[in-house]
Amino acid sequence: MAATKDPRPCSIADALAVVGEKYSLLVLREVCLGNSRFDQLVRNIGAPRDVLATRLRRLVDAGLLTKRAYQDRPQRFEYRATQAGLDLEPVLMSLMAWGDRHLRGDDDRPMVIEHSCGNELLPVVTCAACGAEVRHEDLTAHPQAPGWTVKGPTAA
Amino acid sequence: MAATKDPRPCSIADALAVVGEKYSLLVLREVCLGNSRFDQLVRNIGAPRDVLATRLRRLVDAGLLTKRAYQDRPQRFEYRATQAGLDLEPVLMSLMAWGDRHLRGDDDRPMVIEHSCGNELLPVVTCAACGAEVRHEDLTAHPQAPGWTVKGPTAA
DNA sequence: TCGCGTGGGTTGGAAAAACAAACCCTCGCC
DNA sequence: GGCGAGGGTTTGTTTTTCCAACCCACGCGA
């Protein structure tokens, strides 16, 4: 996924250049769940083996995963998330919450996450400064680079 | 991007089936910023026009965008986010924050977002129940459907 | 010792997507 | 009457994806 052409310098585009290819985020999901082996990933994600191999190389190169042998003779490898990879988990959680809300009946959630506070996790993106939930209407963009257009009201 | 084969019922996969194709999230970014016209999108995203046209159709069909004429004679259209689309913006913001942190020197952020509280937005994913920041080590997955493997420690 | 199964991939060829450039149509304006 | 903007579609080429088959090292059981 080329960042090479995005005319807008943007960390969203940069992030997608790393994790935006098909299956990459599902790999992260699996690894965060603790499934670290090639076959488990193939089975749980449903990706073709060659594509998965490509994605894994990419994610390792990008520093989101590590590959290490969990046995020699025969050599077998496992993939684990680095801190950068783990830091994506909250993003995945909020994406999951969006999917639960907008793509499902909300009562057939295929996975419930428990938070250490004892409650079911309902992820909310908040502003670190004031603690309020982040909503579109409270945001104002300030591009730091030229070549941008930012405009008025954006809702339908 | 097929959800058709993902063997795991999962809202992350479902969400990616809708917005996981190349450029889709960048379209959302632009629309949330207020850039609603085909050309602006082409220029700001850097996508081929035909691909963009395909993405826009998909996003409209999925209910994340609306297409409506902003003038007749000649007919011209604009794309705006629905509530479902706007609800993805916090996810984009946390993805952007991840990119800022892990992909950049953190001091050359290409865009700063201002929150209505007056501070610069630093998005944090929190647990709605307890208000704490969501971290990997505080989460436990509870699959609601069969065919899952979930395992022990997941960090590198 | 022979064959079988498992884990972790690689290879080859066909099908689907992305890409770039050119094209089209409707109009407003000079 | 020609030019340019806006919003796409068409055409042909280049990449990716996909699938199935294959490979290799080993452990095991008969």
TrEMBL record, chains A, B:
Pfam families: HxlR
Cross-referenced SUPFAM superfamilies: Winged helix' DNA-binding domain
Gene3D superfamilies linked to this entry: Winged helix-like DNA-binding domain superfamily/Winged helix DNA-binding domain
Keywords in alphabetical order: DNA-binding, Transcription, Transcription regulation
Molecular functions (GO terms): DNA binding
Disulfide bond is among the record's keywords: no
Limits of the HTH hxlR-type domain: 10-107
DNA-binding among keywords: yes
Taxonomic superkingdom: Bacteria
Protein name stated in the entry: Helix-turn-helix transcriptional regulator
The species this protein was found in: Streptomyces galbus
